[in-house]
């Protein structure tokens, strides 16, 4: 009996040794490394290249001199000396080909965030590909599809390079990100940028069909705005809470502003925001590469948003409703309803930053002023730049009101043109000025 037991144990030992030897021989070949790299690319939906790669038995892979790019892009948007990936153990992976990313660590990566002439950022494409990447987890209601299971994430001392299509550049460093699953349904993240910190975002996201999420935001960009503004506003600060979802390529949600400052102005209140692909962009994506792209779309709807000023005459404005649409280089304001000093106004307008043109129409009713004055009116204005650096301004003011001493009506037109804003010729034409005195 003992002899048979010894033989069985010896046989098992030989099998184990042979299995270890065969596995180690396989590890010495390029097959497991190529397999892991291919599966990482499939999991992320991105092209990943590495000068060297080492894989361990228990699902730990280290990639060196890594480049990550969009599938059809010529240039990489992410370059780093070292990338560590935690995944399914190698032996089950070799037999089942079932691959799951459980952790990603990026050390000192260089990130390129680039915008094209249509206003579309490359990271919009990256985000769309990552959102399409599948994974494990509980089944979504009414479907057989499983929501993505986000891996543990560590980004250490990243440098973000922002490139505009016209050559303007910005470098943001350091950027650090921590992300951890909080069970199968919730993922917590903590991101910070700048030294001292100028941007922080701490929040939760629920991976799935609409990626419901919430985040607490602090932003104080300072001279990060220099490529876009000669003299960035100071102070410029935002403290707020965002909650939203992703729907058909757009982020939709509500921003509750606890405190915001823009030089001598402040803000608090709520705004609804939609941002992402425009309808033309979506059609272009559905129709293939031949479609024309219109760029990113953003729609902002103020909801009882309070703006504060340093002016004693108008210390506070309240934006009750309306919409502001931004598409590429164009901006539209639709039925922005403003209340101040006991009266109300409505603002409509549009502008094109690339063409340096704008139109504005504002109407107000029964606005009070000092010395028991009440006035109503309408202002229309247009700005054109038919020649580079040569603005033209046309404005018409229609006004009526009443004071203790009498009533007035009037219409004034203002026209201006010149070789620059500091070299303008102005013409003021009072088409109508009527005063009806009580005495």
Computed CA radius of gyration, to the nearest angstrom: 30 Å
Q: What string, H for helix and E for strand, traces the elements in order? A: HHEEEHEEHEEEEEEEEHEEEEEEEEE
Largest sheet: 22 strands, mixed
Spatial separation of the terminal alpha carbons: 130 Å
Count of DSSP-assigned helices: 5
How much is the average pLDDT?
A: 81
Beta-strand segment tally = 22
Structural class: alpha+beta
Helix share of residues?
A: 10-25%
- How big a fraction of the residues is strand? over 45%
**What is the general shape?**
elongated
Low-confidence stretches: 14-31, 135-139, 286-293
List keywords for this structure.
439 residues; alpha+beta; 22-stranded mixed sheet; 5 helices; 22 strands
How would you describe this protein?
Helix content is about 15%, strand content about 55%. It has a 22-stranded mixed beta sheet that branches. It is elongated. The chain starts with a helix and ends with a strand. The chain has about 450 residues and is of the alpha+beta class. Strand 19 and strand 20 form a beta hairpin.
Quick recap:
This protein has 439 residues and is of the alpha+beta class. The protein has five helices and 22 strands.
Secondary structure layout:
Layout: H1 2-28, H2 31-44, E1 47-55, E2 60-69, E3 78-87, H3 90-96, E4 101-107, E5 110-114, H4 122-132, E6 152-163, E7 169-181, E8 187-193, E9 199-206, E10 212-219, E11 236-247, E12 250-262, E13 265-277, H5 279-287, E14 296-308, E15 316-327, E16 330-340, E17 343-352, E18 357-369, E19 373-387, E20 390-403, E21 406-420, E22 423-437
Parallel strand pairs: 4-6, 5-6
Antiparallel strand pairs: 1-2, 2-3, 3-4, 3-5, 6-7, 7-8, 8-9, 9-10, 10-11, 11-12, 12-13, 13-14, 14-15, 15-16, 16-17, 17-18, 18-19, 19-20, 20-21, 21-22
